[in-house]
Design a protein that fits this description.
Blueprint lengths: L18 E2 L6 E2 L11 H10 L5 E3 L10 E4 L19 E4 L6 E4 L10 E2 L1
Antiparallel strand pairs: 1-2, 3-4, 3-7, 5-6
């Protein structure tokens, strides 16, 4: 069985109106990450019924292992496992003294958040 979804963020609830669930057709104020109207339990049942769908996982850390947070279509809000500030790639600047470009690079290219398997 797939894990239960954590949709505690207010962005998963539309206070303005109910819309038909994309899976069962009954009205719901709940919204997926992509804005689809869907009941949380319908999304959990869909995740469980589609084990071959692309999955999303948290990043592994020293103090916690990687784990599944749902399918690519319906997935968890978190938790956020990597709280480092993302480092941008190459930045080209101009040195005011010699008017030539120089490269400044960061220590890494990793981005925080979820990734697919």
């Amino acid at each position: 069985m797939s894990p239960l979804l954590d949709w505690g963020d207010a962005r998963h609830f539309d206070h303005t109106r109910d819309r038909p669930c994309c899976l069962c057709g009954r009205p719901t104020p709940m919204r997926s990450h992509a804005g689809e109207a869907v009941h949380k339990v319908c999304a959990e049942a869909w995740n469980d019924a589609h084990p071959g769908e692309a999955r999303r996982y948290t990043r592994a850390a020293k103090d916690r292992p990687q784990y599944e947070v749902g399918t690519w279509r319906f997935h968890n809000d978190g938790p956020i496992t990597d709280q480092r500030v993302p480092v941008l790639g190459q930045v080209i600047t101009t040195n005011a003294l010699d008017h030539g470009p120089r490269q400044i690079t960061g220590p890494g290219q990793e981005q925080p958040g979820l990734f697919a398997a």
